[in-house]
Amino acid sequence: MTRTRFIAFLATATIVFSGCGGGAVPSPAATSATSAVSTATAEGFDVSGLGAPTISALPKGTLYVQYLEIPQPAGGSLAHAHIAGFVYAIVGTHRLAIVGGETKDLTPSEAGVFPRADRQVAFVPADAAHTHSNPGTAPNLWYFISIRPNTARTAVPTFPGQKEVFATPDLPPLPDGAYTETLVFLTVQPSGRTEAHKHGGIETILVLDGSVEVHVQGAPTRTLAKGEGTFIPADTPMQIWNKGAATAKFLAFFVTANEKAFRTNVDTSP
């Protein structure tokens, strides 16, 4: 995905609504059509882009997306190399040192503040030698979010205490070529919603706080609570609503072939 395409997505993420003026009373048919269009637009929704790097190729084999929760004790350190993915700090400080690249300390955002890509998130390129360490005096906790071969489902854990928070089923075969891996943080206020839209690549979400209703064309509506996730296939109209009393916060991770549009709004709610 190009930088322009990602910026365009962010630019359409928050919509401010103005009141309607006076005029003739619309017919019932017109009111119904207006209502359908209205619910397809966003309300009480905001988003922060956390990264959109391009990779030259996906891992080989049958793939799935995994959100892995990893604790490290104070002073803990592990050096290795593996598939590409995002590190997202949850508790404490996570130090990511990439051989031949930068060393970055990641810490969670303060309450009420959106995560920032320069402080809370880092991307690990495929096969780059690097070290995960905890320079703090208390245990830390972080996510590793990636698309990976399904052989990882039965692999020996890399970190003591690691836990799979959410994983998709095995994905259908994906074409060869370059892809963009995108991570965003989103909030939906009570009674709010995203636009009705579709993505050119696969989307997964993981709820961090509150709850959301996920409406996907051709599938039953699902309600997800904190710690739950789901998967939306490419080119499938969908919309996320917050019917709860608290602000919903969630991560969304996308894997999009570079020749595909990242996001396209649709006219009606699924």
Core attributes:
mainly beta, six-stranded antiparallel beta sheet, 270 residues
- Oligomer designation: single chain
Mean pLDDT value: 89
**Can you give the helix content as a percent range?**
under 10%
Largest sheet: 6 strands, antiparallel
Label the overall shape. globular
Stretches with pLDDT under 50, minimum 5 residues: 1-34
Q: How many β strands by DSSP?
A: 20
Q: What is the helix tally?
A: 2
Distance between the termini: 25 Å
Order of helices and strands: HHEEEEEEEEEEEEEEEEEEEE
Our Rg estimate from Cα atoms comes to 20 Å
Strand content: 35-45%
Q: What is the structural class?
A: mainly beta
Topology overview:
Blueprint: H1 3-11, H2 28-40, E1 43-51, E2 54-55, E3 63-72, E4 77-80, E5 85-91, E6 94-98, E7 103-106, E8 121-124, E9 130-133, E10 140-149, E11 163-167, E12 179-193, E13 197-199, E14 202-209, E15 211-216, E16 222-225, E17 229-232, E18 238-241, E19 248-257, E20 263-265
Antiparallel strand pairs: 1-12, 2-12, 3-10, 3-11, 4-9, 5-8, 5-10, 6-7, 6-9, 12-19, 13-20, 14-17, 14-19, 15-16, 15-18
Give a structural overview.
With 270 residues, the protein is mainly beta. It is built from two helices and 20 strands. It has helices spanning 3-11, 28-40; strands at 43-51, 54-55, 63-72, 77-80, 85-91, 94-98, 103-106, 121-124, 130-133, 140-149, 163-167, 179-193, 197-199, 202-209, 211-216, 222-225, 229-232, 238-241, 248-257, 263-265. The strands form five sheets. Strands 1, 2, 12, 14, 17 and 19 form a six-stranded antiparallel β-sheet that branches. Strands 8-5-10-3-11 form a five-stranded antiparallel β-sheet, with no helix packed on it. A hairpin with a 5-residue loop joins strand 15 and strand 16 (222-225). 34% of the residues are buried. The model is unreliable at 1-34 (pLDDT under 50).
